[in-house]
């Protein structure tokens, strides 16, 4: 290699070096910024101020969902099988060790009621319902064996039934005492 050729190669290498130093400096600044940003994100994960999810499941040591918070909630699990819910709801569901839904605190997606329920194994036994217009119903029952229903819609009412038949109804003409829907039977 002659001296002139070596000199031209040195000039080319010096030009490349002049371009590489600023690029390397910029890359070092960007890398430092990324590390600082990611460390801030990791710190936020340890102490979150806000968490946005569509579903959150708390499971026991066997992987069974015991608490489910979701919008909307899936259809209820009863004895290992999914059953159809009367309508879409969002909120919190609790389940027993078998995964069977045993109650919840939900809002109905279609008709805007708020409900607090407690369930037996596959059937509802306690209901507290608040309607958007202010009407409220409280009901406890054991399938068709008996029920106590009270509430206030346009007027207060109280219904006591055994085997679906009224034992005590006040006022005597309250429409809820004649309502054929399962909630009032």
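Q: What amino acid sequence fits the structure above?
A:
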């Amino acid at each position: 290699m002659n001296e002139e050729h070596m000199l031209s190669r040195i000039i080319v290498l010096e030009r490349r070096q002049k371009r590489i130093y600023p690029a390397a400096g910029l890359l070092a600044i960007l890398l430092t910024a990324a590390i600082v940003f990611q460390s801030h994100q990791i710190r936020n994960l340890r102490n979150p101020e806000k968490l946005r999810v569509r579903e959150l499941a708390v499971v026991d040591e066997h992987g069974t969902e015991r608490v489910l918070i979701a919008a909307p909630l899936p259809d209820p699990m009863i004895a290992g099988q999914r059953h159809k819910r009367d309508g879409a709801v969002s909120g919190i569901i609790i389940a027993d060790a078998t995964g069977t839904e045993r109650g919840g605190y939900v809002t109905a997606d279609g008709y805007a009621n708020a409900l607090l329920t407690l369930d037996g194994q596959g059937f509802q036994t306690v209901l507290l319902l608040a309607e958007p217009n202010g009407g409220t119903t409280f009901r406890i029952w054991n399938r068709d064996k008996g029920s106590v229903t009270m509430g206030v819609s346009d007027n207060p009412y109280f219904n006591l039934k055994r085997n679906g038949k009224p034992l005590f109804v006040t006022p005597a003409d309250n429409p809820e005492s004649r309502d054929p829907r399962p909630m009032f039977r």
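Q: And what stands out in the fold?
A: The chain has a mean pLDDT of 87.
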